[in-house]
Amino acid sequence: MRRLWLAAVCLALCAVVPARAMPSTFNQVIGDALLCRSHLDNRYFHDYLTAAFGPAYKREGGAYWFRVEATLWGARVAEVMVSDDSSALVFIAAATGSTPDELQESIRAASGTAFRPRDASPFPVRVSSPGSTIAYVNDKSKIYCAKFKSQSR
């Protein structure tokens, strides 16, 4: 009986613990990286996100996946993915609650960065001149910046 009571108390306490707040530097650090405006260093972004939101909840598809409660350019961001070392690319990506059209307009209004569709398909991938990409993920969007790793000597 005592164990059941302790478990109930622990669950109640966990329910009232607030989620970690978005750091004040999130827009500059993660937003600029997603727009390909900064150097991509997956170790730096992994450490930054771990310190801000806790450890990644999974490692899949060559990336660490972080659940976040954040906004970028007025769009809600639910997940941020950072490449691990298993790929030839270094990348950072974010899944948003906006459609690609909404996200594109929000980014243009907030930062001036323009995106152009790659083709005339009904659901085109959109790319900015620095190389940032917005793609459809069901009815939402994902934005990412990816670069080939530098060769070490």
Short description:
The protein has 153 residues and is α+β, with helices and mostly antiparallel strands. It contains 4 helices and 8 strands. The termini are far apart.
Describe how the helices and strands are arranged.
Layout: H1 2-16, H2 26-34, H3 42-53, E1 58-60, E2 63-72, E3 75-83, E4 89-96, H4 100-111, E5 115-117, E6 126-128, E7 133-137, E8 140-148
Antiparallel strand pairs: 1-2, 2-3, 3-4, 4-8, 5-6, 6-7, 7-8
**Overall mean pLDDT score?**
85
Beta-strand residue fraction: 25-35%
The helix/strand order is HHHEEEEHEEEE
* Number of continuous helical runs: 4
Overview of the molecule:
This protein has 153 residues and is an alpha+beta fold. Helices cover 31% and strands 33% of the residues. It is built from four helices and eight strands. It has helices at residues 2-16, 26-34, 42-53, 100-111; strands at residues 58-60, 63-72, 75-83, 89-96, 115-117, 126-128, 133-137, 140-148. The protein has an eight-stranded antiparallel beta sheet. β3 (75-83) and β4 (89-96) form a beta hairpin. The longest helix is centred in the N-terminal third of the chain and has 15 residues, at 2-16. It is globular and about 40 Å long. The chain starts with a helix and ends in a 5-residue tail after the last strand. Residues 1-19 have low confidence and may be disordered.
Defining key terms:
153 residues, alpha+beta, 8-stranded antiparallel beta sheet, 4 helices, 8 strands, disordered N terminus
